[in-house]
Amino acid sequence: MKNSSVQVLILLMFFFFLVLPLYNRFSNYFMTEPDKVWRRTMLQQQDLYKYTTQQSYRMPYIQDETVDLRIVVIVFNRADSLLRLLGSLNVAFYFGERVVLDIWIDRSKDGQIDENTYRIASEFQFKHGVKIVHNHTFHVGIYGQWLNTWTPKSNSSEIAVILEDDLTVSPYFYKWLKIVHKKYDKLVEVNGYSLQGISIKHGIGSEGLLEAPSGNIVFLYPVIGTWGFSPNRRNWVKFRDWFEVMLHDDKFQPLVPNILPTSWYQTFIQTGKTEGMWSMWHIYHAWKSREYTVYPNFSGHLGLTVNWKESGLHYGPGLARGGRNPSHNLLTIWRPAYEDLPDYPIRLDVYGNIDKEDEP
Fold first, then answer.
1. β-bridge mates for residue 132, sequence order
2. Alpha carbon distance 295, 225 (integer Å)
3. Separation CA 98–CA 130 (nearest Å)
4. DSSP helix/strand/coil, 219
C-alpha cells in the first residue's frame, strides 16, 4: 500500500514539475493560429486584471475633500515632458478656486521609479493649490494610470481632467471645462470632454481631419479624445464598473465594427500589446451605450491642449517628433463667442458626417 502511494506521489511530482512546464513552454508550437490568438488574449487580460484591481492604488487618497478642480497628471519616465506640462499648468487661470494637482508616477515592470521624473515632480512648486505626488507601488501600465487615478464619490461635484505627460495646456483650459461641464453634464449621452483641437476621423476609409461645420463651437463625437480628457463623473463611474466586470469575461473583446481603432487593437492582439490601448474599452462602452465625447471646434483647430508626440508607448521612433513641434496650436486668446454654446451640440459620426438625426 505504501509503495502504491509513493508511486502516485512520484507521478504527480513528475507531472507538475516536468510535464506541465514543458507543455506550457512548447504547446504554442502545436496550436492552430486561432488558438494562439486566444491564448495571447487570455494572458493579456490576466495582466490587465492584475494591473487594474490591486487595492493598493485604487484608494481615493484625498478625494474625500471638497475641491473645484482635480488635475490628474500621469507619467512614467519622461521628466522633461513632465516639467513642460507642469509649467503650462502654472500659468493657466483658475479664478482663485480650490485646485488639487495629483501627479501619478508609474513604475517599470521590475518595480523601479525613474529618479529624475520623481525629482521633477517633487520639486515642482504649484502656485494655485495643493500638489500631491503618488508613486505607484508596482507597475500599473497605462490602464492603471487612466482608470484608477480618479475615483470620485457618487455625490462628488468636482471637475477632473486627466493629462498624459507629453501635453501642454492652454491658459484657458479650466475656463473651458467649467463652461462645458455646466452646460452638458446633465445630458446622459455625454461621457466627457476632450481638450484636443485636432483629430483624425476614425471610420475605415475616411480621410482628412475631424471638424464640424463652421459656426459650431462644439460637437459630439463617438470616439474619446485622450489628449486631455475630463470625464462626466456619472458616466465615468458607470464605465469603470462595467470594465471591471467585463475583464473577467475570457471570451470578450472590445471590438467595434468599421472603425480604425478596432484594426489597431486587433493588431495589438496579434503582437501581444493590448496593454497599450485602454481607450478601446472606452470606445466600445460608448458605442454600446450610445455615448459621445464633447469636442471643441475652434477655428484653425486650436486646442485647449497640444501633444508633443514624444517617443513612448503611443509613438515609436518612426512616429515620434521628439518634443520638437506640437501637434497643432494652443488657444491663447479667449473670445466671448466661445461661451455661446448650443443646448444640444451637433453630432458627427466616425466619418465626420453630421448624424442623420441632426440633419435639417
1. 102
2. 8
3. 9
4. strand
pLDDT 10s digits, 16-65 = 455 444 444 444 444 555 444 444 444 444 455 554 544 433 444 446 56
> How far lies 352's CA from each of 37, 147, 235, in Å?
33, 28, 24
Residue 35 lies in a domain: no
DSSP string, 279-317: HHHHHHHHHHHT-EEEEE--GGG-BSEEE---SSSS--T
Greatest CA separation for the chain: 91
b/e burial code for range 265-281 (CB count within 10 A of at least 16 → b)? beebbeeeebbbbbbbb
Would you call 166 helix, strand, or coil by DSSP?
coil
- pLDDT for res 327: 75
| pLDDT band at residue 357 under the 50/70/90 scheme | confident
Residue 17: inside a domain: no
Q: Which amino acid is at 106?
A: D
Q: How many domains does the chain have?
A: 1
Please give the grid coordinates belonging to residue 195: 481638450
Q: Average pLDDT of 297-306?
A: 96
Per residue in 269-278, pLDDT (tens digit) is 999 988 989 9
pLDDT tier at 315, thresholds 50, 70, 90: very low
Q: From CA 52, how far away is CA 63, in angstroms rounded?
A: 19
Structural domain of 149: 53-352
Residue range 123-178, pLDDT digits in tens: 999 999 999 999 999 999 999 999 999 998 888 899 999 999 999 999 999 999 99
Whole-angstrom Cα distance, residue 277 to residue 55?
Answer: 22
CATH of the domain at 188: 3.90.550.10
- The kind and range of the H/E element at 104 are strand 99-105
Q: In this structure, is residue 10 part of a structural domain? A: no
User: What does residue 101 show for φ and ψ, rounded to 5 degrees?
Assistant: -105, 110
Taking residues 67-75, report their average pLDDT. 97
Nearest-angstrom CA–CA distance, 295 and 18: 57
> Which residue intervals of the chain are DSSP H helices?
2-14, 20-26, 33-53, 79-90, 115-123, 141-147, 173-184, 233-246, 260-271, 279-289
Tell me if 21 is assigned to some domain.
no
- 134, β-bridge pairs: 104
